[in-house]
Design brief:
about 200 residues; mainly alpha
């Protein structure tokens, strides 16, 4: 990169340009690529991998606009994470001694110390709560991602209609960034659970 000859062209790609040294950025022409639209990813997964529409929709919404990330999720136990989302919300919002049960539910994620798995789980948690918020303000179901859990989502949305969903969304996004930045997974997840209990249980 210091003094390449005129016939040499380097193409560098990164999802985190802020982490690149300024000495490299000063020698580059930055071209920003927008994330691929969810609908395009969904259709690609249906056509290329013969996924069901609903399954492809879920993968496309977790993918952050990346086909590579969407296909890498095939090896993840997405249904296990979706079940964990519901059980975790039930646990942190009930009264009594919920802390030990919460730690138990998150134990596998914490012990694995796998950033990718944690971020996937948090994205599913975010999607589920967005569905609940949608159910709390409208009867329309077209935009609900977890449509197979519609009855549970509608009950949750009705019961927690006064919840501060916007702060809950921000807390989850912050937790994703902290884990992606190598934050302590146990601390980040348990702190998030306390925050969600505060924002949702009003």
């Amino acid at each position: 990169l210091e003094e390449p000859n005129s016939s040499t062209l380097f193409i560098l790609t990164t999802s985190q340009p802020d982490f690149l040294p300024k000495t490299i950025l000063s020698r580059t022409q930055v071209i920003h690529f927008e994330p691929i639209q969810q609908h395009s990813i969904q259709q690609y997964l249906v056509q290329r991998y013969q996924l069901e529409e609903k399954e492809a929709l879920l993968f496309s919404k977790i993918s952050d606009g990346s086909i590579t990330k969407a296909t890498s999720l095939f090896s993840e136990d997405i249904q296990q994470y979706r079940d964990l989302v519901v059980e975790l919300l039930r646990t942190i919002l009930r009264g009594g001694a919920y802390r030990n049960k919460t730690r138990g539910l998150l134990a596998e994620l914490i012990e694995a110390k796998n950033k990718k798995q944690c971020i996937t789980f948090l994205q599913l948690l975010l999607l589920w709560l967005r569905d609940a918020f949608t159910a709390s303000v409208t009867n329309q179901t077209e935009t609900i991602t977890n449509i197979d859990q519609l009855e549970t989502i509608q009950r949750f949305g009705t019961h927690y209609k006064a919840a501060n969903f916007s702060e809950a969304f921000r807390a989850i996004e912050l937790a994703k960034r902290q884990i992606d930045g190598n934050g302590n997974i146990q601390l980040v997840l348990l702190t998030l659970c306390l925050q969600l209990r505060t924002y949702l249980k009003v």
